[in-house]
Amino acid sequence: MINSLRPIAGSASLALALLLSACGREPQAPRVSVEDIWVRLPAAPGRPAAAYFTATATTKDEAIVAVSSPAAKVEMHETVTEGTMSMMRPLSVASFAGEDRIRFEPGGKHLMLFGLDPKLRPGEKIPLSFRFRSAPPVTVQAELKALGESGPEHAGH
Q: What is the pLDDT along the chain (157 residues), one digit of tens a residue?
């Protein structure tokens, strides 16, 4: 009787091992990529610059909690319109709000960069470091553009 149970026990052990190996996969850690990043230099030295980008997250409950750079003091802002008035207001967190992508673009959410070195020129790059709610930090190089130049999303238009 015991010998007749060995094939069943062996098959059950194999099935259990396969089941556990499928369940034993580690869930993928949240990640965020930052692309198409660029900085519009100010019209006059000493004025703030603005930065724009697209961030894509692997989880929809992600948020950008801070952005920093050794080249400037960085603040997140958004442009809001009330009636006929448009104004900027600071953002402490930029939530993906159930989406997998968030855009910082002219006329909407954007980064303000204060204290950029006036010697910086179009075509140069500065690092911007992003911190997120749960994803690891990301540092990217943002290309500097002159006033009137547009970023990657308008190339060829």
A: 555 555 555 555 555 555 555 555 556 678 999 999 999 999 888 899 999 999 999 988 999 999 999 999 999 999 988 889 989 999 999 999 889 999 999 999 999 999 999 999 999 999 999 999 999 999 999 999 998 777 665 444 3
* d(C-alpha 117, C-alpha 102), whole Å: 28
Intra-chain end-to-end CA distance of the chain, in Å: 80
* Helix, strand, coil shares, percent, the chain, to 5: 15, 45, 40
- β-bridge partners, 129: 68, 139
pTM of the complete model: 0.77
CA pair distance 98, 37, nearest whole angstrom: 22
| Residues constituting the chain | 157
Interatomic CA distance for residues 60 and 133, integer angstroms: 11
What is the CB-side half-sphere exposure of residue 90 using CA atoms within 13 A?
A: 7
